[in-house]
Amino acid sequence: MKFSIKSGNPEKQRSACVVVGVFEPRKLTEAAEAMDKIAKGYISGILRHGDMEGKAGSTLLLHNVPHALCERLLLVGLGKEREFNDKEYRDAVRAAFKALHETGATDAILYLTEIPLKKRDAAWKTSQTAIVALESTYRSDRLKSKPGESKPHLREITLGMTSTAESASSEEALQQGLAIAHGMNLAKDLGNLPPNICTPTYLAQQAVNLAKTYKLKATILEQKDMEKLGMGSLLSVARGSRQPAKLIALEYRGREKMEKPIVLVGKGVTFDTGGISLKPAAEMDEMKYDMCGAASVLGTLAAIAQMRLPINVVGIIPTTENMPGGNATKPGDVVTSMSGQTIEILNTDAEGRLILCDALTYAERYEPEAVIDIATLTGACVIALGHVASGLLSNDDELAQELLLASEQAVDRAWHLPLWDDYQEQLKSNFADMANIGGRAAGTITAACFLSRFTKKYRWAHLDIAGTAWKSGKDKGATGRPVPLLTQFLIKRAAQGVKKAKEAS
Ligand code: BES
Ligand code: MN
Ligand code: ZN
What we know:
alpha/beta, Leucine Aminopeptidase, subunit E, domain 1, 2 domains, 9-stranded mixed sheet, 7-stranded mixed sheet, 21 strands, 21% strand, binds ligand BES, binds manganese (II) ion
């Protein structure tokens, strides 16, 4: 789909479909009003007959509206004006696209971004419109024997604005929205691929492809490289698998060499059987999503590279399968991590932290400004926060606040959990420096406590995305989260960096 912004009045548009909003009960927005006026009350007449109340999510498609230049007019219900908020805005855009996809229209112009929204500007509405629109066209049908069957007709989307005042910031916002949607799609594609295709080797190949497309620097560490570095913890997870483990590093330089990078570390377990501590059979297929942290790192790098964001970012992805086998790690095994700290593995299903800890130590060599790891780490996080919010834990309150702000802006929720030292004692081991599990209580926090022992040298935050990275049930699939949160965080950081550099010169 192609997107553009155009200023002009709705009644002047020769489009296959003009889209305008209607509040409940039967209150026309400005754009709807303008259409009604040239149609000499045709639209308000239809509403008066009771064909549309304006309920949130409802739509009404009209053909041959008198005196209109467009082929179709789509009315979108916005709900009550007083209650019109972020969620209602996104729902309205989603409903509009659902209805548009059911028509034969190949282009459409939307007049929704000027509808007033508490706390949000036109730029926000513009980028959200692009994201929701592209989400509506996402399909994961590559592996069906007849792919592309449900491909939408819609090819050109115009965001109509009656004033030109905000058009420069809206253009930038549009590009940001498109980049975020692109990154989300990439993350969804990787997440949705089956584990027989999306192996550690496949992920490494995707990283190399991304590096070629966007001129990034890719480094792939093989098993023997990791052995040399002493990554005994990461390698202990890979022991049961036939697929070789990899450590991927991707460097994006949007600023001069000097500036310290933000490092993103993504858990890339391409299939998590639990290892010798085998998981139950039910829904085990969903453990193909255990590389969604890695996918979100690749998606975010694609998004910022597409925008040419002026910031330095490094993506690090430890990737392996977690399988049982004759050579697999056993409960009770003690391994030595790259940091030198020893770990008693009491449960081989707590493998995410075992691969992340070595990747986090490896991150030190980039002298990071901050490190953020993203992982489908604990079932406990799904119990605590459900599928709504990602868990956020950090050794730096300022960084945590910054991420929360980005999450709010991007409508990609996260919730701050405590990382008090009081929880550390749950990781005590009689035989090693620490155990890899901390018991049932506060499972998300003790997992983060484990990671915190490897992140003492820099500002660090951890996002547990076990509940947010994919959906189960009939709409099973990867969500592309938290690409919006991470990209928004980096957009803001980049802007601050540019501002600081200007002030200094
Ligand atoms: N990948 C899982 C976490 C997970 C579970 C994500 C369910 C999404 C849904 C992780 O590797 C894991 O197995 N964690 C264990 C840790 C436990 C053994 C301490 C868990 O959460 O059960
Ligand atoms: Mn596991
Ligand atoms: Zn896992």
